[in-house]
Q: What sequence folds into this?
């Protein structure tokens, strides 16, 4: 463990981790994304950080909502949770912390913490991306000594407050998290920031249609930051897109109720931005698939 200085305060981190390196080089982790979030938060807000890791988002969000606000943070990995606790305490903050996973189903899952290899192929204690840990029902390939059983909780059972903002980054279990929070989402209509990566979602048996349907049926609009995620500033380019089928790669969606009083004012539509290139490529591939189905050739 090492302690590094960020623009939001001192943060205790894993040594030799990608997240740590980004904090050291940029002054914070994902500063443009955090800048976008902070522009939407207000003092006194109730905020959920699900997949809080060591607190890289929790700390600046807590600073923005102030003492009148409430932060609920969930982190499944016990070692990472210890760092989250330390960082909240060291920065003189108050938060409700849960060392639990979040899922639509109560019970337990197992933590899959990837073990990296050095160049000689030997196990290494130094982790390269601690943010990539995920929960799974399978223990295949896990050593008994390294197996961590994680208790699960539903957001609707853990949080009774009206919620203003939810951040979710849980390596593919995002839809299960949202289904655990149906009452909170339908009652509060919060703005939501969520990781989205199709291979991770598929690992949980989901797809983009399920993701889109959940939010479109609740009258949410989709936005992304089309600018850099990693930067030494808080600048971002907000683009409104029709849905997840229009993107490729790993993105974080900003999901905003169409009737929100905090609906973004400064954004461009996807067809007004170079992002249209991605949308067209996606549509062209879709047409190829249809043609292949009709002709029997792919």
A:
């Amino acid at each position: 463990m090492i302690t590094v200085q960020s623009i939001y305060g001192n943060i205790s981190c894993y040594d030799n981790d990608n997240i740590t390196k980004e904090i050291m080089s940029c002054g914070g982790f994902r500063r443009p994304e955090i800048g976008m979030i902070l522009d939407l938060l207000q003092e006194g807000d109730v905020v959920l950080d699900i997949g809080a890791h060591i607190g890289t988002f929790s700390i600046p969000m807590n600073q923005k909502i102030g003492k009148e606000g409430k932060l609920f943070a969930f982190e499944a990995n016990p070692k990472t949770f210890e760092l989250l606790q330390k960082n909240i305490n060291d920065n003189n903050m108050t938060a409700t912390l849960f060392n639990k996973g979040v899922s639509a189903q109560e019970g337990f899952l197992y933590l899959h913490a990837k073990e990296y290899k050095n160049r000689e192929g030997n196990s290494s204690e130094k982790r390269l991306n601690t943010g990539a840990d995920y929960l799974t029902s399978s223990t295949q390939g896990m050593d008994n000594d390294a197996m961590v059983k994680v208790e699960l909780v539903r957001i609707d059972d853990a949080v009774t407050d009206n919620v203003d903002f939810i951040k979710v980054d849980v390596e593919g279990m995002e839809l299960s998290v949202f289904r655990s929070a149906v009452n909170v989402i339908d009652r509060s209509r919060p703005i939501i920031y969520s990781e989205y990566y199709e291979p991770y979602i598929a690992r949980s048996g989901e797809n983009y249609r399920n993701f889109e349907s959940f939010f479109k049926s609740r009258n949410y609009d989709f936005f992304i930051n089309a600018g850099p995620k990693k930067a030494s500033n808080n600048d971002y380019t907000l683009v409104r897109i029709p849905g997840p089928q229009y993107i490729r790669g790993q993105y974080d969606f900003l999901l905003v109720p169409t009737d929100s009083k905090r609906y973004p004012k400064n954004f461009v539509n996807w067809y007004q931005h170079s992002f249209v290139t991605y949308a067209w490529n996606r549509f062209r591939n879709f047409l190829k698939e249809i043609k292949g189905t009709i002709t029997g050739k792919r």
In short: DSSP finds ten helices and 15 strands in the chain. Residues 2-269 form a domain with the Rossmann fold fold (CATH 3.40.50.150). Residues 116-124 have pLDDT under 50 and may be disordered.
